[in-house]
Amino acid sequence: MDYLTLLQILDSTLRLATPLLLACLAGLFSERGGIFDIGLEGKMLAAAFFSAATAAMTGSVWLGLLAGIASSMALSGLHGLASITFRGNQLISGVAINFLASGLTVLIAQSWFQQGGRTPSLIGGGRFEEVTLPFADALRDVPVFGPFYAEVISGHTILVYVALLCVPLSWYILFRTRFGLRLRAVGENPAAVDTAGVSVIGLRFAAVGICGLLCGIAGAYLSTGLGAGFVKEMSAGRGFIALAALIFAKWRPWYALYATLLFGFLQAIALRPDVLESMLQFKIQVQLLDALPYILTVVILAGFVGKAIPPRAGGEPYVKER
Amino acid sequence: MQTMPKWADIVLIPVINLLLAFIISGFVILAIGEDPIAAVGLMVEGALGSSYGWGFTLYYATNFIFTGLAVAVAFHAALFNIGGEGQAALGGLGVALVCLMIPWPHWTVALVAASVGATLFGALWAIIPAYLQAKRGSHVVITTIMFNFIAAALLNYVLVNILRPKGTMDPASAKFAEATHLPTISDMLNAVGIPFAARTPANITLIIALLACVAVYYLIWRTKLGYQIRAFGKSQAAAKYAGISSVKIIMVTMAISGGLAGLMAINNVMGEAERLVLNSVEGAGFIGIAVALMGRSHPFGVLLASILFGFLYQGGAELALWTTIPRDLVVVIQALVILFTGALDGMVRAPVERVFLMMRKKEA
């Protein structure tokens, strides 16, 4: 494999890892706050549709992003209502949200655009433009680093850089602010937080809200950055891969970056079976590559590669003592 | 303390939940510019108005009985098996292998063997996550989700590389031999002189599904194992104190659950398609979740809920045929049913309990 092919694969790794990373960080906030969320997939899908639909109708991708975030946060609100306010089962609520998004997006897309459950292709201002970072062209001739900078680091849409910035930001919020400390506490021992006079319900809604915000960006990226318009089921299991990455990352932001980059790399390489074959000298089944993130997660979960311990109060509705 | 009479818990609350789900579905139909009343009329006419419609409604219901029972059995042990989709897919593989490998003389023998194959393969796909939960502490919900994806990749591989007959492009197995074809409901009814539309997919598996309902009822409420499962589901600590092995209960319950999900393949693979195709389960594994929640994890409830979802599935197909409403409406209804009967149950329960408490105070 030559250097240029490697750069191409790394480039698509970053592209494909971005929605995983955003969704993974979304799940991180929610689960650190004690709310399991298997509805990441549905929130992403809803956001992908509403951002593409809004961008198609208004011609503005920024309005699309806002609409995507709003729809994702609305579903988050529903999840919060069911699992925090009414103390319902968080897993069941997540399953419901996934189906709700899967059905509603197609239903509304058909009703608005009559194109068989998709939005029109986005053109011009309806998509996020690729950003060329400063000096990308000037540095191109520098050996090794120049092409890497120009091909891999530069030339992505703004949301890719937003996602990368979210990693240190999430780390800072969770581990260096009072809010972060309380958020983590509410996922471990909500009774202690309550005793300290801080609202458990408020904190958990904040966690779920941040989760909705990040899933919204992830979904908007799918349809307006990575793709050019919404197609049915376009999230394609990414919410679940993000969930897998979250466990892989043991609920920590920097590890989330590494895990999603790994899974993004697997997806990127699955798109280029020719490269893999020439490298390994034997044929690797595409299906094996598809299944690899899930198999890895099962192996990690089983504790064969270190132990992944979830936040202690995760999944438990908090009942204040009376 | 029991604040509500038993009938309110079993009948009133689920009915209110369902009504809420349906009312919101109606608003969804209204919002996309169609008439909900006319839509319901079309669905009833298309799914229940003729024996042709019933032939499809009962076929779908048969699928959902199996996957619904699978989720319900796991619920009794407080386990959430989201892996019905993958387990049913593996069950399909079991059926296909049994039907293709051995030249069966008669469908009765083939049916027994295929049932065993379907159950074993489905159970196997559930036992691995069960083992990982029981022994290694990994959460069964996450593992079963992962196993759905792994099953999809595995079936894709098997169909494309192994079972696909040479010279065809379609990722599907060869047609099963004539001798393994199951009699349809219409064959059976026409034989005794009752007219029933031909070319409908409902088949003898429906009877197996009904037997499975009885068997699950008997297992859960009339056997020692069922008692242990329920005890474990109510309180793991208490069950452990009573000498019930958590490893055994998790493994056995998930094996039964996976086996039931796998058994669905008799209906769709052997009874309907008569070969194994890609994505043969078509989401029935997930509908099992809605069915089990709606049926309150009771076999009779599961049966009723399955028929309702069979009706929605067939009615939804009719709607897609005659109106501009896509079939995905059923997914929305399914989501709302799961939401209201599962996650938002507390929203309905609390005010109803309050009403009953008020009534009791007045009586006192």
In short:
The complex is a heterodimer of chains A (322) and B (364). Chain A is mainly α and 322 residues long.
Q: How many helical elements of chain B?
A: 15
The helicity of chain B comes to over 70%
- How many strand segments of chain B? 0
Instruction: Give a short account of the largest sheet of chain B.
Output: none
* Poorly predicted tracts of residues of chain B: none
Query: Which range does the strand content of chain B fall in?
Result: under 5%
Radius of gyration of chain A: 20 Å
Q: Decide which structural class fits the backbone of chain A.
A: mainly alpha
What is the typical, i.e. mean, pLDDT of chain A? 89
Largest sheet of chain A: 2 strands, antiparallel
| Count of individual helical segments of chain A | 13
Structural class of chain B: mainly alpha
**SSE string of chain B:** HHHHHHHHHHHHHHH
- How much of the sequence of chain A is in beta strands? under 5%
Order of helices and strands of chain A: HHHHEHEHHHHHHHH
Q: How many extended strands of chain A?
A: 2
Distance between the amino and carboxyl termini of chain B: 17 Å
Number of domains of chain A: 1
Task: Describe, in plain words, how this protein is organized in 3D.
The complex is a heterodimer of chains A (322) and B (364). Chain A is 69% helix and 1% strand. Chain A is an all-alpha fold. Chain A has one domain (3-234). Chain A has a two-stranded antiparallel sheet. The radius of gyration of chain A is 20 Å and the shape is globular. By secondary structure, chain B is mainly α. Chain B is 76% helix and 0% strand. Chain B has 15 helices and no strands. In chain B, helix 8 (205-222) runs antiparallel to helix 11. Chain B is globular.
